[in-house]
Design goal:
By secondary structure, the protein is mainly α. 75% of the residues lie in helices and 5% in strands. It folds into three domains: 47 residues, Ubiquitin-like (UB roll), CATH 3.10.20; 67 residues, Receptor-associated Protein; 248 residues, Type II secretion system (T2SS), domain F (Receptor-associated Protein). It has 17 helices and three strands. Helix 8 packs across helix 9 and helix 8 runs antiparallel to helix 12. The protein is elongated, with a radius of gyration of 29 Å. The chain starts with a strand and ends with a helix.
């Protein structure tokens, strides 16, 4: 009898997993539900990834094929695409269309092959009697844990259309927040690339010619001219060492940042960076409040909501605070107190949460906080954009000015000696 690995929720809402033998996946799901377990994932105990649209016993794919599939699904799995898809499903279900028929309609209008394949697999799973949340969990690149858990709650409560509308609104708000920050950082990044390109051309084509002239003159040169000439020589003669060295340092930094200790140190540093640190913290607070409000209003238990929130904060320091808060809540503490003690969460947020707990309107308070921080992020992004433009122009002007002065100073001294 084959052995399957399963994950699911027990009657208390806790995540459980394990191994169990059964004749088939369907029989195992029936047995788990009979034992009071709501399965979210059942697969053979082989540790092999499944392709969208294939069964657990389907052909195995190589790592190269998986990489190509991941690249192809980037556009299909974009947050904007998922938000539109979610709203369409919610609209069809609310209109009285069955879930299977709704998926069929979306499959017909899907233009991207990868998205069409994923939707076809979801429809197949639903038609075979599996839950919608389980079908979604087979495609983690498209649907997050937050998405899957909220759909599971909607299925259990019988208000799937309402939950999907909330999910669509939440995804839209998060996408707008992300696009604002991305747009604000686009111009400075473009200026850095263009400025670096201009400096590279000057250092590798113009400065070397002037360097030869200065060397032939045999005159003592100012420190800035010597620095410019030394930098130009390094770029021209040792680029074959500099490029691998920079790549190696970059790779080492990324590996260090992925480690547990390195991630905490880096995330703590990011939160303290001038201008960007407060902005990143506000974005995290907006995601925290918005995600919690969405899940609590959908009927998800508080501890489960906080567990999912940890994955959307994007900062390990703040994630640790939420983890500690969950432990404190299990011991009977309130939500606001452990967050306030950490010193990482703003006092306004902690105060609003405390008021929401006492008044029984925690979801409403969190929605207000999320809206307030979203508006504040919008304001700060506008200020940052207006500040970065002149700042980048000034930096580029100083860099080019340094090159010009370093070149013209010895030339002017030489011409004065000739006169």
């Amino acid at each position: 009898m084959p052995v399957f690995r399963y994950k699911g929720y027990n009657s208390q809402g806790k995540i459980i997993s394990g191994l169990k033998d059964a004749d088939s996946e369907r029989s195992l799901r029936v047995a788990l539900r009979r034992d009071g377990i709501l399965p979210t994932e059942v697969k053979p105990n082989e540790g092999e990834a499944e392709n969208p649209g294939t069964s657990a016993k389907g052909p195995k794919t190589s790592s190269i094929d998986q990489f190509i599939a991941r690249i192809k699904s980037i556009g299909d799995a974009s947050p904007e695409t998922i938000a539109v898809l979610t709203r369409q499903i919610a609209t069809l279900i609310k209109a009285g269309v069955q879930l299977s028929e709704s998926l069929s309609a979306l499959i017909e209008q899907a233009e991207r092959p990868m998205l069409k394949q994923v939707l076809s697999d979801i429809k197949t799973q639903v038609n075979e009697g599996r839950s919608f949340s389980y079908a979604l969990s087979r495609h983690p690149r498209f649907f997050s844990d937050l998405y899957i858990n909220m759909v599971s709650v909607g299925e259990a409560a019988g208000n799937l259309d309402e939950i999907l509308f909330r999910l669509a609104n939440f995804l839209d708000s998060q996408n707008k927040l992300k696009s604002k920050v991305t747009s604000a950082l686009f111009y400075p990044a473009l200026m850095i690339i263009l400025g670096g390109g201009v400096m590279l051309v000057l250092m590798t084509s113009v400065v070397p010619k002037l360097t030869e002239m200065f060397k032939d003159a045999g005159k003592s040169l100012p420190w800035n001219t010597v620095l410019l000439m030394t930098t130009s020589d390094l770029l021209l003669n040792y680029f074959w060492v500099l490029i691998p060295a920079v790549a190696l340092l970059g790779y080492g930094f990324l590996q260090w940042k992925k480690s547990k200790a390195g991630r905490i140190v880096w995330d703590r540093f990011i939160l303290k960076v001038w201008i960007f640190g407060p902005l990143i913290r506000m974005m995290a607070m907006s995601r925290f409040a918005g995600t919690c409000a969405t899940m609590l209003s959908a009927g998800l238990p508080l501890l489960k909501a906080l567990e999912i929130v940890q994955d959307v904060l994007g900062n390990r320091v703040l994630t640790q605070v939420v983890e500690n808060a969950r432990e404190s809540i299990r011991e009977g503490d309130s939500i606001a107190q452990p967050l306030k003690r950490s010193g990482e969460f703003p006092s306004l947020l902690c105060h609003m949460i405390s008021v929401g707990e006492k008044s029984g309107q925690l979801e409403k308070m969190l929605e207000n906080v999320a809206m307030a921080y979203s508006n504040e992020v919008d304001t700060k992004v506008g200020r940052l954009t207006s500040l970065m433009e002149p700042l980048m122009i000034a930096v580029m002007g100083l860099a080019v000015g340094f090159v010009v002065i370093s070149v013209l100073t010895p030339m002017m001294e030489a011409s004065s000696l000739v006169e």
